[in-house]
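Late entry, evening session. Most of the bench is empty. Finally got around to the prediction I had been postponing all week. Sequence below, unchanged from the version circulated by S.P.
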Amino acid sequence: MAYVVKVDDRGRIKLPKNLANADSVIIIEAGTFFVSIPIPKDPLAETYGIIRTELSVKELKEITEKEAERDALGRHSK
């Protein structure tokens, strides 16, 4: 879904009503435009159940940390 919104003289924009329930918005600069990602007021409640796994939080954290380390070392060696 895409929206066209007006920018006021102070550089502010008004979010569409269905996005306005976010507390914060991530703004990603992408050349001459930007991408915005609304952050829900309760991100955990909004995302609960999206990913189903048999792994524990501890196991997921270990996997993530190993992958981040592998990625960092790979970038460092380039």
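Two things to note before I forget:
The mean pLDDT is 86.
The chain has one domain: 17-76.
Will write this up properly tomorrow.
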